[in-house]
């Protein structure tokens, strides 16, 4: 199992370097394209012709979305750079999560009793994730009946409804998910589940 974790760690390092390289290239391209679009580089220079011939077709889908949203198409290179950076950070988080799952499965398989403990730990993790998704969906105003969010409501309604009945309302704030998250963490540590 140690060899698997070591090779996975090496893979993650390679992915980090590739994403960092993509971000640097995207930053250079975004700066060049922005300079051409804002006329900081003469429009008939070789760099401007290169940008119009190679970079502008790549930016066309981003520009289309920006224009449909009412934005300025000159900002398309910067939106692309931000998308690459945010996408890279999300990819890093997913890879770290996958590495943790691989390590946990290795730990759980090392002894028969540990695997049951691991499944219970994952159940607590799923409930906490459902609470987090539910809270974030209320911030960005996603319908509770959306297929992307409905699962979190189904998993957490059973524990939030009794808490809401006991807690007084604090204006528009609903602190029942925060209390439920705290109670789940308390129960998990009381049971000695990692």
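^ Assign residues to that structure.
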């Amino acid at each position: 199992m140690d060899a698997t974790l070591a090779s996975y760690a090496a893979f993650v390092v390679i992915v980090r370097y590739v994403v960092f390289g993509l971000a640097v290239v995207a930053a250079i391209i975004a700066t060049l394209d922005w300079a051409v679009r804002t006329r900081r580089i003469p429009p008939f220079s070789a760099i401007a012709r290169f940008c119009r011939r190679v970079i502008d077709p790549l930016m066309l889908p981003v520009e289309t979305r920006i224009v449909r949203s009412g934005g300025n198409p000159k900002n398309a290179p910067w939106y692309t750079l931000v998308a690459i950076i945010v996408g890279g950070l999300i990819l890093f988080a997913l890879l770290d999560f996958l590495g943790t799952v691989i390590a946990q499965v290795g730990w759980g398989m090392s002894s028969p009793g540990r695997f049951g403990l691991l499944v219970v730990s994952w159940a607590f993790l799923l409930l906490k994730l459902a609470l987090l998704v539910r809270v974030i969906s209320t911030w960005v105003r996603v319908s509770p009946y959306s297929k992307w969010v409905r699962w979190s409501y189904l998993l957490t309604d059973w524990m939030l409804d009794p808490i809401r009945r006991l807690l007084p309302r604090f204006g528009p704030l609903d602190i029942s998910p925060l209390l439920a998250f705290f109670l789940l963490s308390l129960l998990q540590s009381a049971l000695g589940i990692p």
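The CA atoms of residues 112 and 118 lie 11 Å apart.
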